[in-house]
Design brief:
heterodimer; A: alpha+beta; four-stranded antiparallel β-sheet; two-stranded antiparallel sheet; B: mainly alpha; 67% helix
């Protein structure tokens, strides 16, 4: 599950004045952990902390800032192990960002 | 006016009238065609094509005096043409249809086969999880995409499931009929469960106040329509008691729907709701229905659930909730239908009636595959642990409930309760 935040609404958990938002994320990750579905997950620091790199024709291009300056930014991800897309969507709906940002659900590549 | 002036354009009003006329007869027509043809998918295709013609022609020519007969004639023509293309013209069914094709001027009285169709949608051979969706699409004409939104499923997966269910109805030759007295109670319960599941989807959708999809929360009125339909189509005998019980149950819930949010949009739990915000006439209507159902002396789970809601509504007139009576009603309900939701609610009722130890024991012994993600169980565990004075455990349970909550208003409410436990 890729967690996207609405940058205009300052929904990133790092921009949390009273701690309620961070607490909601903690509860969400905790509930997934106790249900035994979580495999991995991280929150990412704000997009101001991003550095992007490209190698083109042997030339390094290193820039400050995110990959794409869009209205919604990737704020974190969770890897969960569930039986079906429906189960994954049910967990996605419970995330604090589902009502203000977007959750993208994708299966991992099986190698 | 010069001859070059265009004909009066079809305005939005005439288009709306056409859409409304088409919508009102959709379920009846589809039920009749599917029943005659024994094939839901083929009937849907034919009716969709007839509706498409109607929405094109009616705004220009006016809605015909008998819109259902018009649609039926066109849809039957479509079905016959499709059958001829597939060289099915020798089948006796098609021959019979060819023989009695009515003219649009003298339509036959159209029997209402929607009840038969509802029974097919909730047939034991159809996966219980797909039944509410199937009913919403087949009887009410809702689109797979909207149903998928309500069910939190991908639109492609939902469309596929519906297609598979309809193929099964056709291939397995499921009977399009109202079951006999022996089978009726069990088969009717399956129909009513699917209707109630559709209502529950609408209820949950209304719970996430931000950007509510009107269509999804509109599932509540669609489910009420279906329950009312079942009540009016079933013969007036004891078999109808549970259908009346379900309708009463949903009306009790409707009566309190608006009270779940304060003026600022904050979540208001049942115990804190101002009874002045309840819909008293609707509660009275539900009470009459429930009393009518009780006269058949055929109790069942939906009547008991309605009776529990009726007891909650007593606070409107007497100022307090009869918790001891609610505990007794839950005991009877659990003897018939021990669902996870009912077991959790029973434990809370025990706690409210003063028996915290019993509530504790009931919640501790809950065992269900859905328990790990069932939010009400964790709210209840938090509540009862707090009553028992075990604050750390209460905090952990509440935290878990917060992590399982979808609606932001409910999440904020639970976070407030957690803060007060600190």
């Amino acid at each position: 599950m890729l967690m996207f935040f609405d940058t205009a609404a300052n929904q990133h958990p790092a921009l949390d004045a009273d701690g309620a938002r961070m607490a909601a994320w903690g509860a969400y990750a905790g509930a997934m952990g106790q249900a035994g579905v979580i495999v991995a997950g991280h929150g990412l620091q704000g997009r101001d902390s991003a550095t992007t790199l490209r190698l083109r024709d042997g030339v390094r291009q290193v820039q400050d800032g995110p990959f794409a300056d869009s209205k919604e930014q990737l704020g974190g991800y969770f890897v969960i192990d569930v039986a079906s897309l429906d189960d994954a969507l049910a967990w996605a709906a419970r995330s604090p960002t589902a009502t203000t940002g977007t959750v993208e659900v994708r299966p991992t590549l099986v190698m | 006016m010069s001859p070059a002036d265009p004909a009066p354009a079809a305005g939005p009003a005439s288009h709306q009238a056409a859409a409304l006329a088409a919508r009102q007869c959709y379920g009846r027509l589809l039920a009749w065609l599917a029943w005659q043809w024994r094939d839901v998918a083929a009937a849907e295709d034919a009716l969709a094509s007839a509706l498409e013609k109607a929405l094109r022609l009616w705004p220009l020519q006016g809605v015909p005096a008998a819109p259902d007969a018009w649609l039926l004639t066109v849809a039957r023509r479509e079905l016959l043409q499709a059958a001829r293309r597939e060289r099915l013209h020798t089948s006796p069914q098609v021959q019979a249809l060819l023989a009695d094709e009515p003219s649009a001027e003298h339509p036959p009285a159209l029997p209402d086969s929607r009840l038969q169709l509802l029974f097919v949608c909730a047939h034991p051979a159809i996966d219980a999880a797909v039944r509410p969706a199937l009913m919403l699409q087949v009887v009410l004409g809702l689109q797979a995409q909207h149903i998928a939104q309500a069910l939190l499923t991908s639109p492609a997966a939902m469309a596929q499931r519906l297609v598979r269910a309809k193929r099964k109805i056709h291939d397995a030759g499921l009977r399009f009929e109202v079951p006999g007295p022996d089978e009726l109670p069990v088969r009717l319960h399956a129909v009513l469960e699917a209707v109630y599941a559709a209502y529950g989807l609408g209820w949950d959708a209304a719970d996430s106040a931000e950007g509510v999809d009107a269509l999804v929360s509109g599932l509540r009125s669609e489910a009420l329509f279906l329950a009312d339909l079942v009540c009016s189509l079933l013969p007036a005998d004891a078999g109808r008691a549970e259908a009346e019980g379900l309708l009463a149950l949903m009306l009790f819930c409707e009566a309190r729907n608006g009270a779940r949010r304060g003026p600022d949009g904050a979540f208001v739990p049942l115990a804190e709701q101002d009874t002045a915000t309840w819909d008293a006439p609707l509660i009275a209507q539900a009470e009459r229905l429930l009393a009518g159902a009780a006269r058949w002396a055929a109790p069942g789970p939906f009547q008991l659930e309605a009776a529990i809601q009726s007891a909650h509504c007593e606070r409107l007139h007497r100022g307090r909730t009869p918790w001891a009576g609610i505990v007794v009603l839950y005991e009877r309900l659990l003897a018939l239908a021990p669902s996870l939701g009912a077991r959790v609610a029973f434990a809370v009722a025990c706690a409210q009636a003063g028996d915290v130890a019993r509530a504790d024991q009931l919640l501790a012994t809950l065992d269900h595959p859905r328990l790990a993600s069932y939010q009400p169980a964790w709210v209840a565990r938090g509540h009862v642990a707090a009553l028992a004075g075990r604050r750390a455990e209460a905090r952990r349970a509440l935290q878990r409930a917060i992590g399982l909550t979808i609606a932001p208003a409910v999440r904020a409410h639970l976070q407030g309760r957690l803060a007060r436990l600190a």
